[in-house]
Design goal:
The chain folds into 2 domains: 83 residues, Ubiquitin-like (UB roll) (Roll); 133 residues, Cytidine Deaminase, domain 2 (3-Layer(aba) Sandwich). The protein is globular, with a radius of gyration of 19 Å. A hairpin with a 2-residue loop joins strand 12 and strand 13. The chain is α/β, with parallel strands linked by helices. It contains 8 helices and 14 strands.
Length: 276
């Protein structure tokens, strides 16, 4: 049995191990749906690991182009008008100012389009649309290759739920010296990044132009997009990037590193930020 940890993201279950007849207890990562409402209207359902739900909602709405800053957020509260089962899984975000108009547009788009990981979205047009509304990231500084190589071990030391379950992704935000600033775990690697971005957004520390983002899995287009919207100039990952992630990073001025394992890694864009 894996070491137990007290966390809303962990649940004990009964298992039968091969070669044994008696059941044992084991820890698994919790996955539950969270409905995000905006100004009372249902906007999305996110499959996530409970914890840091307000941060997750804020980061998600930034990535969905509903909000552009913390100033456009009024309140983030769990909904009381739901059944007991959904009481801790339904959250309402009130938005103000220009975000109200954007909300109407985003709700209209969601009613018209169903998106999947295979739909493509015409990569070139998607990158161009991001460039039209988001400036390329800043951060004309460098970091040593040794710092990049050290990040996975530094993040792993904070992954308490992963240690108990072996079933969660993680993301970490580091300063340019490799010191861990924030970390988050979730069944979805996108959610882990949203939790970090949302927490810093609500804390008023955007843009994150002095930070490095590390993710525990592969790097998709969406993860680079989230970094761009937060102003993060360097992304590192323990696995591979997709072609569209590389394309967006190159266009957006982001340094993208992949396969960060041991002392080795690949640099796919803007290598000038990585020193020897």
């Amino acid at each position: 049995m894996k070491k137990a940890t007290e966390s809303p993201g962990v649940r004990e279950v009964s298992v039968i191990r091969r070669g044994h007849s008696a059941p044992e207890r084991d820890c698994v990562a919790v996955e539950e749906p969270m409905e995000v409402r905006v100004n009372g209207a249902s906007f999305a359902v996110i499959m996530r690991t409970p914890g840091a739900d307000r941060d997750l909602a804020a980061g998600f709405l930034l990535a969905e182009d509903v909000i552009h800053s913390a100033d456009e957020i009024g309140t983030i509260e769990y909904c009381a008008d739901v059944t007991d089962e959904g009481r801790d899984n339904t959250i309402n975000v009130t938005v103000t100012g220009a975000a109200v108009d954007r909300l109407g547009s985003r709700l209209g788009e969601r009613r018209q389009v169903m998106m999947t990981a295979s739909c493509g979205l015409c990569g070139r047009r998607t990158i161009e649309s991001l460039q039209a509304r988001v400036a390329a990231v800043k951060g004309e500084w460098t970091v040593s290759a040794e710092v990049i190589a050290s990040l996975p071990d530094r993040l792993r030391s904070t992954q308490a739920v992963f240690e108990s379950t072996g079933g969660l992704h993680a993301a970490g935000l580091f300063d340019r010296h490799g010191t861990l600033q924030l970390s988050a775990e979730d069944v979805g690697r996108h959610n882990a990044v949203d939790k970090i971005v949302g927490r810093t957004l609500l804390a008023g520390t955007h843009p994150l132009d002095q930070s490095i983002l590390l993710v525990s899995g592969r790097t998709s287009f969406e993860l680079v997009q989230k970094a761009l919207l937060a102003g993060i100039p360097i992304i590192a990952a323990v696995s591979a990037p997709s072609s569209l992630a590389i394309g967006l990073a190159a266009e957006a001025g982001i340094t993208l590193c992949g396969f960060v394992r041991g002392s080795n890694f690949n640099i796919y864009s803007h290598q000038s930020r990585i020193g020897s």
